[in-house]
Amino acid sequence: MKEKFLKSMILFSFLLLSIIYLEILFKIRILTIDFDMNLFRVILFSLSYSILIMFFTSFFKEKAVKRMIFTLIIIITFLYINQEIYNSFVEGFYSIAVAGDFTLGLSFFSDYLQSFRFCHIFYIIPIITLYFLNKYKLISFNVEYCTLKQPLIVLILGFLTFFISLQTIDETVEGANNNMITYSDMDLYTYMYNSQDALKKFGLLTYTQRDFFSLFRTNPLSKSEYEVLLDDYFENQDPHYYNSYSRIFANKNLILIMAESLDTFAISEELTPNLYNIYHNYAYFENFYSPLYYRSTADSEFLVQTSLYPDKNVTLSMDAYSDNTFPYTLPRMFSKKGYVTYSFHNYTDYFYPRTKFHTQTLGYDAYYGSEGLGMLDNPAPNEIIFNHEWQSDLEMMEKSLNCHTYSEFENCTSILDGDDNFFLNYVTVSGHFEYSSNHEIAVKNADLVTQYEIDKGIDLPDDIFYYLAANIELDKAIGYLFNELDRTDHLDDTVIMIFGDHYPYGIDKEEIWAYDDIIEDGSDMDIHNIPLLVYSNSYILNGTIDNYMSTIDVMPTISNLFGLPIDYAKVFGADALGTEDNIVRFADMSFVSKWFNYDSLSEEYTIINEHVTPEYLSEINYKIINDYKYNLLVLQYDYFKDDDD
Predict the structure, then answer these.
(1) Which pLDDT score is estimated for 108?
(2) Mind giving me the DSSP string for 197-262?
(3) What is the pLDDT of residue 106?
(4) SS3 assignment, position 628
């Protein structure tokens, strides 16, 4: 009995030390490591999980326990690795809901493999250790109970340790006031409204545990009770005031281009002269941010078109809420003003169900993907998984402007030849990673970048080289657009707005910081500062605009410029031109503005205006959390379903 107990303790010690090691390694590499209560709490949780694993394995024979422990350690190890790799792409942490679409993840499996770095070998040390402990018989898996008292004691110890871990979570609220709902660390544990903060305070295994059980959480209030809360919330929003930019584009046409991975360093006089022309001679929003959320491009699209935040608790917001009612979308509001509305994208619906989302959910008159445009036949899933075949932005522009009823007639007139005002929405794809010689569109323009290197006397890294080559295709599309607008006498009565869906996360940040001379080196928030360009003949909206804004602010800002019929209180973005105090919010609850910044990872404020007080910043923190939670209620309860607007 004594020998069996000692061997069980060796197995228990291995489990405990492995989990603590992985938690600390993850904190060092991704978060922050401090010897404080947070670390102590993570160790306590790790202890409780190790004890409970021992309880569970005590009911099985030695061979089964051996298989279970090896499988468990491998799964846990790759949980940490996968979260780090996911974070390296989107600077967030996936939930079980987002990770659910395994088949789509396979499409980027090669990119996933390329994301492995030598340093990731440190995560595998527990697996290697277990292998050698087993090989040299230094560990025993014979932990089956002899009497029922043994597993009962272990179970009690496990739950007692877990209970003590919970007691270390603070239930008090700092900076509470009577004007808004405030949150404690226990609320964070319960609702997981901030993934990064939860990971920092509770550890990855506890985050995963809470994420799993959140799938079964029921809401404490009824739908009617939540509707009352939402009514009160919207009634207390600040009003929108008419400003010097209001309706300056009334009755003009709009072409909105969300460009795949467009960043500031893609704008070059030599390589992308059309972008360069708009950047230098028309309007450029120098403080526009496109924060990454949970499904990158799809979520940026959701933010722009609805001015609502996506939901991290579903696999894909544009799919999960496709049957919701959204009265305030760009196409619906333009339609009310008598515009025709069309949306175009040069790829298939394999990743995102855009056909339904753009027509039924958002309300575009028509949506054309690569199949509808005659660019790409419907490929089999295995063809997409192993070969993405990114399509040409130039070809999409040519086809979309020459015929808008592709599936019905062989010959038809251009959208630009009609008499109606138009709103055209484009989602480009030519700039998509991976940036290598396997990128068909980039290879087309490689000679131009090679000549650029020769002229400048530089030698670009491969991924920067092919990234620039891919974006030449976008610039060609914009050049074609300008020519067609000029040919049809629409150049003066059309506004073109171009922005990136996110920074090019297919390139290492270090390379971006080394090559891009606009963003702040080393800033994980500033790396999301990407171009928003506006072409128009307006003298009012011209030059460099320093107002802060992000993707969620695009729709209300356009609404103000064009005089669209919007209820500003019922969207979560702001008219960025109506205030100098607009705040850019990130998925991890960090925020930046003209007067102050907050980094949720370091929990540090940067105050630029001396009149900003800590109490005010505390209110901003709680407002951001509240906004996000009310935003989720709008989505989950389809708040606008019975809206008469």
Answers:
(1) 55
(2) HHHHHH-HHHHHHHHHHHTT---SS-HHHHHHHHHHHHHTSPPP---TTTTTTTT-EEEEEEETT-
(3) 47
(4) helix
* Cα dist from 560 to 242, 249, 311, whole Å: 8, 9, 26
Average pLDDT over residues 80-109: 71
CA distance 343 to 256: 9
Asked whether 300 and 499 are in contact (CB, 8 A), the reply is: no
Residue the block writes with tokens 């980027």: 108
What would the pLDDT profile of 191-236 be if each residue is shown by its tens digit? 888 889 999 999 999 999 998 888 787 777 787 888 899 999 999 9
Largest CA distance in the chain: 92
pLDDT tens-digit readout, 31-46: 888 889 999 999 999 9
Domains and CATH numbers, the chain: 2-214 (no CATH), 253-642 (3.40.720.10)
Question: Can you state the angle between helices 462-487 and 393-402, rounded to 10 degrees?
Answer: 20
Could you tell me the CA-to-CA distances from 572 to 129, 267, 307, 309, 501 in Å, in that order?
50, 30, 6, 8, 18
pTM of the model: 0.89
CA distance 173 to 182: 7
Count CB-CB contacts under 10 A for residue 416.
19
